Amino acid sequence: MAQLLTGHLLRFVADPFTAPIKAAVVHDTHGAIRIEDGRIAAAGPVDTVDRTDAEHIDLGDRLLIPGFVDAHMHYPQTGIIAAWGKRLIDWLNTYTFPEEMRFGDPTYARKQADLTLDLALAHGTTTLTSFCTIHPASVDAWFEAAAARNMATVAGKTCMDRNAPDGLRDTPQSAYDDSAALLAKWHGTGRARYAITPRFTPTSTPDQLEALGALWAANPSCAMQTHLSEQRDEIAWVRDLHPEASDYLQTYEQHGLIGPGALFGHAIHLEPRERDLLRETGSAVVHCPTSNTFIGSGLFDAARTITDGITTGLATDTGGGSSFSMLRTMAAAYEIGQLSGTALHPAQLLWLATEGSARALRMQDRTGTLAPGSDADIIALDLSSTPAIAQRSGRAENIWEAIFPTIMMGDDRAIADVWVAGERVARTPEGN
Ligand code: GUN
Ligand code: ZN
Predict the structure, then answer these.
(1) What is the pLDDT of residues 342-393, one digit of tens each?
(2) What is the CA(88)–ligand 2 centre distance, in A?
(3) CATH code for position 346
(4) Which domain covers residue 315, as residue numbers?
(5) Which residue of 72, 283, 390, 402 lies most exposed, with the fewest beta carbons within 10 A?
(6) 291 close to 77: Cβ distance less than 8 angstroms
(7) Considering only CA atoms, which residue is closest to atom 3 of ligand 1?
(8) Computed from CA positions of residues 104, 108, 111, 117, in that sequence, does the dihedral angle turn out positive or negative?
(9) Nearest listed ligand to the Cα of residue 96
(10) How far is the CA of 60 from the centre of ligand 1 (A)?
(11) Cα(88) to centroid of ligand 1, in Å?
């Protein structure tokens, strides 16, 4: 049966980084969304939306927006989130690699996949983009857990054939073969999308990058995800490993690992040539603000990057990131914007967390928007979810003043309801 959700609606009709905010966003104070067969059939002012033969769910004062889209995270790191005191390379060796070693066990991998997806849903995130581990079982576990929830996810086997401990290295050939088999099994199955996933240049030999570049060339509808220029020490390491390369990005470029569908996590410390190349090739970068402060990586200049014409998504980067919440992630992006000299508008933050990330993933036709035809991944925000937020939003004189306290101070308590492909899901993670 069709569903009709009524409440406040916020719909983007243009990109708020290029169009004026007033022209980019529509706020329907008496809005409705009609859901049919898991998809959005219509969204707009309530009197324009067909209500025949539909179950009516009234959300009252709640604000209906697309579910959040997390464009870069690591589900195997859920168990080590908030690990103290290390910067990137030491953090990987001390906390991350020992935990990732455990994902050869399919039972453990499935448990962590279930846990992560339920935490994400409780925080209003309906689409996730995850690195797995080198173990094919970790990829199966993730996609099986996502399929059980009918969630759209993008993920792939993390490939590493150097500078990683015993038990956590593959080879160029096995990385190719395993990725090819997983891609054939999962890419386009239900809502699953495969991402070819070399972890980063320090842990992949040129032979491995070459093999994965060939695999991507043969399967261009897949995504390709990796890390780029996150910390200065990492960049210096890449320079030592590849003195012949003009810059870090060239170590991917020379193996065909660049172009539409490429997702470069972090990309904080870029050279002018790298910026030009990212724009010209239609590659995307992913801003991971809570991670960038937590691991001490630096200040990503989102406004400049977007103005330069580089496709940009937003992400938690858990467990290097310190929160599962895209609200907290928007707050961190706002704070870093302030430190970089640009106050990002709440509309821009919300766009980055939904349609912007979906565009980076090349999935904006099906997720991250309320446009008709899109899958019905929707959340209802409570803009008064705590006393501290309520006392501030109660004074709001416009929609942006009403939303901004939730962006800056909100968490999973602000997520009143979640729909995944038209199915209303329980808000609380299992077991809590
Ligand atoms: N660079 C290479 N691997 C990782 C990772 O797991 N997390 C982060 N934040 N950066 C990385
Ligand atoms: Zn990452």
Answers:
(1) 999 999 999 999 999 999 999 999 999 999 999 999 999 999 999 999 999 9
(2) 10
(3) 3.20.20.140
(4) 68-360
(5) 390
(6) no
(7) 199
(8) negative
(9) 1
(10) 42
(11) 7
